[in-house]
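tl;dr need the bound structure. longer version: we got a ligand (uridine-diphosphate-N-acetylglucosamine) that a collaborator sent over and nobodys looked at where it sits. i said id run it. heres the input, straight from their email, havent touched it
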Amino acid sequence: MKIISVVGARPQFIKLGPLSREIRKNHEEIIIHTGQHYDHEMSDLFFEQLEIPKPDVNLEIGSGYHGAQTGKMLEGIENEILKHKPDLVLSFGDTNSTLAACLAAAKLEVPSLHIEAGLRSFNRSMPEEINRVVADHTADLLFAPTEEAVKHLECEGLADKTVMTGDIMADSVQFVQGLIGENRYAGRKYSVLTMHRPYNVDDPEKLKKLFAGLEKLGQAILFPVHPRTRKIVESNQVSVPGNVELIKPQGYIEFHGLIKYAEKVITDSGGLQKEAYIAGKPCITLRPETEWVETVEAGWNMLLDVEDPGLAEKIAGFNPSGKRLNLYGKDVAKRMVDVLEEMLS
Ligand code: UD1
Ligand code: UDP
């Protein structure tokens, strides 16, 4: 099989790592990087640390309004599909790069696979929700990470093209956990914070409320800052309390070192909610809803509004200790490639 894998943003490089390794055992893979993320620590560093071959093509689309960014990606990916004539176009998650990959393949009637299919927040004000729905309805094959995702796909009439495979990030985490060394923060008492959702960070007043809540919490917070968030903090001169330490985005290995010694994880990231669960860290998700409901049902994830006046007390009081079942599977990349070989041979 000749497979084009399309990636563009940090979480997609992380998902590509284990799958690319498995694909390349018996198949040809061409990696297209849309260039949606481009800073060294948001992109190249992940290819190095996850041992992913350099992209065959970088479309270097960069940042922009959604329509312009997605449109340029669509054109670039279309050209590459026409040039390479793949048997399959593969995409991950819910970014604009995912949307462009699924649309480009659908328009050219080239089979496409959407990985991490079936996630729903049922909140259409999230750009990701629109991307997911369109990706699932245009792709030919859907790999769902959880039973919950399978249920959503069934409700939308997509059961025929759905396969429950487990979550590829289970493999990414397994890979990185074998690489974590001693961390310079080991021995310190801290929690980790990440934030990048537009509805949390694009309004500086919300960020100020969050920082006020975290100041009240009093505990040391290490905050690797996403470039979107850094831009808002800096351009609005949002003052950061003394207990919150802003650091640059971390490599995958360093970041998992941070998680390993952290007391809690506070985040609005999708992937990190699962990683915190797997690592056994209480996760406070700064969102009104989550796609990863099973982590909440298991008692290890708590939803919290950044503007909640009781933010500090609620974070301090969240101390789960219940059992953690394996929710996301094991050797997922192998299962995915096995399914592909069976279906496409
Ligand atoms: C994107 C995805 C989001 C995903 C997130 C992962 C969409 C609509 N959003 O959000 O689903 O969860 O990636 O991190 O696809 N920037 C830099 N350097 C970079 C990349 C971005 O400075 O390498 C800055 C730019 O100012 C840019 C802003 O971050 O305008 C936002 O980047 P963009 O890729 O549009 O959206 P994200 O918020 O990163
Ligand atoms: N991550 C990382 N370094 C950081 C912050 C996050 O390696 O400084 C990893 C994290 O472990 C997770 C992924 O990046 O796997 C999450 O990416 P992001 O929050 O950008 O996107 P989302 O998961 O919300 O789509």
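gonna send this back to them w/ a short note. The mean pLDDT is 97.
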